[in-house]
Every structure is written in structure tokens, then in C-alpha cells.
Design goal:
Strand order of the largest sheet: 5-6-7-8-9-10-13-14-15-16-17
Oligomer: single chain
Radius of gyration: 24 Å
Length: about 400
């Protein structure tokens, strides 16, 4: 039987996750990190590097995350989670499989270790932050118009890079959406159940024009996408969308001024699964999450991102929380109209302005937003709302 040599707080978590997803029987041998957070010497008896993850299966001993994932899927996947070898999709799959531990990992590890140097590492942060922004931008552009790095729908697509920062995408696919019943036991108060978005079967066609980010933090930058989608199935519809994200460095240690916008317009046949929704994190802090939406939306969120010193709290011998944080006064405004029947979000009945402040910590990973709506809703009174979430830059890869 396959055995996972599992070290606590290590990358072997992903191996256990994969085995559970595939329903593969396995045994687990647990190892505990020492006080200095290093792996125990017993792991060297399994593999000379003494690292985790490591698996043993019959006469095979395999280390390295990508190699382990590849082995398990080929040996036990029965065709799941992997395109057919030799296909174009398989080559893309193989590239992403190795990308996470290859190109993407280096700037993240550099950020982790350089943050432990305190002020001595400050000259390196601009280059490291630029590389992280470059990779997140790459992921963001690849995820444009899709839910996963590898497509989950039946369809075909074509991409043309018209210039270094301009990309044209054309795609068509068949999509069937259905609602899934959810049950949850809230820890406190009530939870917001998933709306019924099942809309039946559609053939979709989409065209998008993207202006990509440069991934540089020391000069002005902008990324924007405008897309036109049409669908034929239970109904017929057209859906136009736009989003942008721009920043301007202010110099003198004053940080950046950043503006994010979204807009959407669709015809009357828009299915529930393709409706627009705004409110809450990412669009209108202090408003109810996905509180407004329909066939027409527009939002603007502006913030002044000021770097401030922060105490670096140790997270073991190899990591800390970083000695910098981002303090960001913010202002947002949004509008929604063209409500769709049987959806919990509807018209905003005019513009919805909000104001507040955000704080990003842990190397920009965690974002706190404390905001207040500037236009009150009758019967609700004043609401100062705190939101804790992953920073938007990390959403494409989580």
C-alpha cells in the first residue's frame, strides 16, 4: 500500500489532499518538526535529503511534490485530474504542475527569507515585490474568463498577442450549470446560503481584449480587460464587461495611489449564473457581500497605499510576519440595476458610496478593511463593518 511520510506543517499536506480527492487507500507515517522547526533525522532513513513530502509505494521511493503528484495521478487516477498524454492540454497541465515549485516559488521564498533580515533586506524588496507582482499578473491574465488554470468546460479557444501588453482572446464552449444544495452549521449568527444559480445549458462565445500589467511597482502601471459574451440556450443574451486596475507611485516613501473599476451591461435574457454582483470585499467594503447586482453594474474603489513599519513577529526559525504593512485610506462607490428574478441581489436604488481604511499585513497576504457606508438604508442605521480576507492580489491563485 502507498505510504505517505508526513511532516507537520509541510508540503505533504497537498499529497494527502490529492489522495483523499482520488479516494486512494494509503497509510500515513507522521513526523514532528523539532524545536528549531527542522525535520527530524528519522526522515533521512526514508530519503537522503530528509525532506517531506516523500512517499513509498512497493519498491518506489519518490520525493518532490511535482513528481509525487504526477506519479499518483498516473498510477491511481484512472484518467481523472489529467488530460490525455500527448494532447495539447497535457503539455499545458505539465507546465502548470512544475510552475508552482519552479518559477513561482523562487520570489516567494526570497520574500520569506529576506523579510528576516529586517532593514538590511530593504534594498531587495522592490525587486522581489516586482517579481511577485509579475507572477500574480501572469496568473491573473491566464484566469481571465475561466474558473481554473485548466478549463473545466467543453470548448475551444484562440489567443493572439498583438503587442507585448495587448492580448486578444476568442473562445466558445458548451456550459451546463445546476444548483447544489448546501448545508452548514454557523458558528455564530446566521450564514448566507448559496443562491440557486443553475441556469441550464448554453453555447457560449466570448471575445476579450486585455491590456496586461507590466508588473513593476516603481512606476505607473495599468491592466484592463473588456469582454463581450453571447449565449444561446434556455435564453439568448449578450454580456459586456470591463474591469481595470491601475496604480501610480507617489514617490518620497508615500506609497501608491490605486484605482480599481468594474462595469457590466447585459440584455434581458441574461441567465442567473452569468449575472453581475457587487458589494463587500473587492468592490464595496461595508456593504453586504454581493448585496446588489443584476444586468447592469459599475464600481470604483480608490485607495492610497502607504507603507508603514510593523513589528516582525517570528513564525519559527525560517519565517516572520514581515517588518512592513500597508495602510490604505479608501473610498468606493457602486451602482447596480436590472434585477434578475429569484436572486438575492438586486438594484442598489442609486449610487452606494463607502469610505474607510484597509490594513495589509503578513507580506501583503492578509487584508483588514474597516469601512462605513456613506448612504444609509432605511431601517438599518449606521454600520461600521470590519472584513478580514486574503488580499485581492492573491485571489487568482487561491
Amino acid at each position: 500500500m502507498l505510504t505517505v511520510h508526513h511532516l507537520n506543517n509541510s508540503r505533504s499536506q497537498r499529497v494527502l489532499w490529492l489522495l483523499e480527492e482520488l479516494g486512494v487507500p494509503y497509510e500515513i507515517v507522521r513526523y514532528q518538526r523539532q524545536a528549531d522547526m527542522r525535520a527530524p533525522k528519522e526522515l533521512r532513513a526514508i530519503h537522503p535529503l530528509g525532506k517531506s513530502p516523500v512517499i513509498t509505494d512497493g519498491g518506489n521511493t519518490i520525493a518532490e511534490s511535482g513528481a509525487i503528484v504526477d506519479y499518483i495521478i498516473r498510477r491511481y487516477g484512472k484518467g481523472a485530474m489529467m488530460p490525455a498524454p500527448g494532447s495539447v492540454e497535457y503539455e499545458t497541465y505539465n507546465e502548470w504542475l512544475h510552475y508552482s515549485e519552479g518559477s513561482a516559488m523562487l520570489p516567494l521564498m526570497l520574500n520569506l527569507y529576506v523579510s528576516r533580515l529586517g532593514d538590511d533586506g530593504e534594498p531587495l524588496h522592490a525587486r522581489i515585490d516586482g517579481e511577485i507582482a509579475n507572477h500574480l499578473g501572469y496568473l491573473d491574465r491566464h484566469l481571465e474568463g475561466r474558473s481554473y488554470l485548466l478549463g473545466e468546460e467543453v470548448g475551444v479557444g484562440w489567443r493572439y498577442r498583438a503587442a507585448p501588453r495587448w492580448t486578444v482572446d476568442l473562445a466558445t464552449r458548451f456550459e451546463r450549470t445546476s444548483s447544489v444544495e448546501t448545508r452548514a452549521r454557523p458558528i455564530r449568527r446566521e450564514y448566507q446560503p448559496n443562491p440557486e444559480l443553475g441556469s441550464g445549458s448554453y453555447w457560449l462565445a466570448r471575445a476579450a481584449l486585455t491590456f496586461g500589467a507590466r508588473g513593476a511597482l516603481d512606476r505607473s502601471d495599468l491592466k484592463a480587460t473588456i469582454g463581450l459574451e453571447g449565449g444561446v440556450g434556455e435564453t439568448e443574451y449578450l454580456r459586456l464587461s470591463f474591469r481595470s486596475d491601475g496604480s501610480i507611485p507617489l514617490g518620497g516613501g508615500l506609497g501608491h495611489f490605486r484605482v480599481r473599476t468594474t462595469a457590466g451591461l447585459a440584455t434581458a435574457g441574461l441567465p442567473r449564473s452569468r449575472s453581475f454582483a457587487i458589494g463587500g470585499r473587492g468592490t464595496l467594503p461595508a456593504e453586504r457581500f454581493r448585496g446588489y447586482g443584476g444586468r447592469r453594474v459599475a464600481t470604483l474603489l480608490a485607495e492610497w497605499r502607504i507603507p508603514v513599519p510593523a513589528p516582525a513577529i517570528g513564525l519559527g526559525p525560517f519565517a516572520n510576519t514581515g517588518n512592513r504593512a500597508i495602510l490604505a485610506p479608501l473610498f468606493g462607490i457602486g451602482w447596480a440595476g436590472g434585477a434578475i428574478e429569484d436572486l438575492p441581489w438586486g438594484s442598489s436604488n442609486g449610487p452606494r458610496p463607502v469610505a474607510g481604511v484597509a490594513l495589509e499585513v503578513l507580506h501583503g497576504l492578509i487584508r483588514f478593511e474597516l469601512a462605513h457606508p456613506l448612504r444609509q438604508v432605511e431601517g438599518q442605521g449606521a454600520r461600521l463593518r470590519l472584513t478580514v480576507d486574503i488580499s485581492p492580489e492573491w485571489w487568482p491563485i487561491l
